[in-house]
Amino acid sequence: MPTNLTEREFSKHLHTKFLIKLDTPEPIELELTEVKGYQGTPDEPGEMERFSLFFEGPVDAPLPQQSYPLEHNQMGAFDIFLVPVGRASSGFRYEAVFNYFKTDTST
């Protein structure tokens, strides 16, 4: 069972590795490079959790936009929808966007 997928929790694991295990000999390794929070508006009903995660992956293994099973040694296993948003000489950059009503306002 994964840890709560919140901005606060992901921020604890900035610059750590996440693995995608597909039908490949080796898992694809992504590094969490940025956690970016977004402010809600005063007129929203309820409290929202809004943030983006940015990962960097290898230059030789581009991933198309879709859901992937991620594993992290402390957060556990969970599915996440990744969108490729850029490419640098060091690798591809991916974004995952979270936008949901909080069920526990203490997180």
Describe the protein's architecture and organization.
The chain has 107 residues and is mainly beta. Helices cover 5% and strands 51% of the residues. The chain has 1 helix and 6 strands. The longest helix is centred in the N-terminal third of the chain and has 5 residues. The model has no long low-confidence stretch (mean pLDDT 89).
What is the succession of H and E elements?
A: HEEEEEE
Q: Rg, please?
A: 15 Å
Mean pLDDT: 89
Low-confidence stretches: none
Q: For the record, give the distance between the C-alpha atoms at the N and C termini, rounded to a whole number.
A: 18 Å
Structural class: mainly beta
- How do the strands of the widest beta sheet line up side by side? 1-2-3-6-5-4
The tally of beta strands, per DSSP, is: 6
Number of helices, where a helix is a run of at least 4 consecutive DSSP H or I residues: 1
The major β-sheet equals: 6 strands, antiparallel, barrel
What is the helix fraction of residues, given as a range?
Answer: under 10%
Q: Quick one: overall form?
A: globular
Q: Beta-strand percentage?
A: over 45%
For this entry, give a set of tags.
107 residues, mainly beta, globular
Quick structural overview:
This protein is mainly beta.
Topology of this structure?
Layout: H1 7-11, E1 17-20, E2 28-37, E3 48-57, E4 66-72, E5 76-88, E6 91-101
Antiparallel strand pairs: 1-2, 1-4, 2-3, 3-6, 4-5, 5-6
